[in-house]
Write a structure and sequence with these properties.
about 60 residues; mainly beta; 4-stranded antiparallel sheet
Length: about 60
């Protein structure tokens, strides 16, 4: 099976309080960081912001 090119990469995973899991995802095309949290039957996604309200951007590295 051929490896698929995926747009998002998981940079961090944390499991914690009351079975809530959080993930930091990075868009490989833009470098923008997102926080995804899930627990029970719900979840949510948001852009991570710095102290001035701008999106956190990770330099894009060619990982393949």
């Amino acid at each position: 099976m051929a490896k698929k090119n995926r747009r998002f990469v998981i940079r961090a995973v944390e499991s914690g309080f009351i079975a809530v899991s959080t993930y930091v995802l990075v868009d490989k095309q833009t470098g923008v960081n997102y926080l995804y949290a899930s627990g029970g039957y719900g979840g949510g996604l948001t852009v991570l912001l710095d102290a001035t309200g701008n999106p956190i951007v990770t330099p894009i590295l060619d990982e393949e």
